Amino acid sequence: MNTIFVAGHSKLPTGIAANHISESLTLTLEVDQNYGVIIDASCTLATDHGRDFIKTLLKGYSLKDGIEGPLARLHEGYLGKAGNALEAALKDSHKQYQLHTEKS
Length: 104
Fold this sequence. Notes:
By secondary structure, the protein is of the alpha+beta class. The protein has helices spanning about 50-60, 70-75, 85-104, and strands at about 5-10, 25-30, 40-45.
């Protein structure tokens, strides 16, 4: 297998639809081991549309290049209340990726 599965977590703000399902947000990334490129992404936002948007937003970025690009795109494109939670989950995912690459 040439990909790894990375998960990041964060706390959701109160008063949003996803919070009725869970108090935390999970962002998962399938990442190519050689190049660090995000092949697929998923998150626990409440709507299919929101989950699809985040997937489209993150696919193609390389975690080897850091997360400044995906964070900037997230700030520009996602205007919902879960923005800070998505940012924190992305940072957590990147941290998990870095821990894995340091061990390899």
